[in-house]
Amino acid sequence: MITSIVFDVDDTIYDQQAPYRLAMEKCFPDFDSENMNQAYIRFRHYSDIGFPRVVAGEWTTEFFRYWRCKQTLLEFGYRQIDEKAGSFFQSVYEKELDEITMLDEMRMTLDFLKSKGVKMGVITNGPTEHQLKKVKKLGLYDYIEPHCVIVSQATGFQKPEKEIFNLAAEQFGMNPETTLYVGDSYDNDVQGAVNGGWHAMWFNHRGRTLKDNIEPIFDLEIDNFEQLYGAVKVLFDLPNHKYIFDSNDKENRVLQLGIENGLILAAERLLVSGMKLEDVVEILRLNDSQSNLLKIKYSHN
Length: 301
Known about the structure:
Blueprint: E1 4-7, H1 17-27, H2 36-55, H3 61-75, H4 83-97, H5 104-115, E2 119-124, H6 128-137, E3 149-151, H7 162-172, E4 179-183, H8 186-195, E5 199-203, E6 220-222, H9 225-237, H10 253-272, H11 277-284, H12 288-297
Parallel strand pairs: 1-2, 1-4, 2-3, 4-5, 5-6
């Protein structure tokens, strides 16, 4: 039984690649745009491995931000940048972050959870003031009580350390055995949640792949915001929350139906907006039965 749900923030509640891409285009216009998706993933990687040195007092926040930008660019064959260029990129990036908004599908998901009275929370890595600014900008306090928001720097721990999940469970008043954590990072979010005894949903909308020697430990993997809405609706819309994750049954048809319904909802929105059916099928990777259903329903168009 799942009775509560906790979210990551960056690239889970909102599309973090958008402000990163805009800042890169403004600061490094000669960077190869075809590498932007992978560059963003590596930028997140350097954020994850560098920020612990800030927490430990080894680096300043300013040097850390310059370092992750420099390392990302070097990895893709870009020229060496100095701290001034790194600082300028960070200032532009922060201005773009000031414009972040929650996607409609995520708002639908949170509205649904709120209507059901489901207890929600947030665990996010990063500098306290910086992350709380995002939480406020995104309007998360409309759904989540302030005491149910934890930022790693304020705790002395960070994901994937189980201590931050233990602290959250106690502070939020949630039972790990009936709490689902949703995040885009396999290392930080999935492994961290499972280490803390929580259930985990991997929001893999960047198409990351696991190394061959890694055994998947998540309860569920989804790859877009529409699937998130469909899955959450199943988890919390059944009578008395009776859906139970079963590690021996990864092909649960009830949950799969919820995910598919989320995709159909997204497809219908795109069709109504004027997009061609074949383009919708390709973008959302719909199967033949889903495609045929839409052909029948929208054949008059």
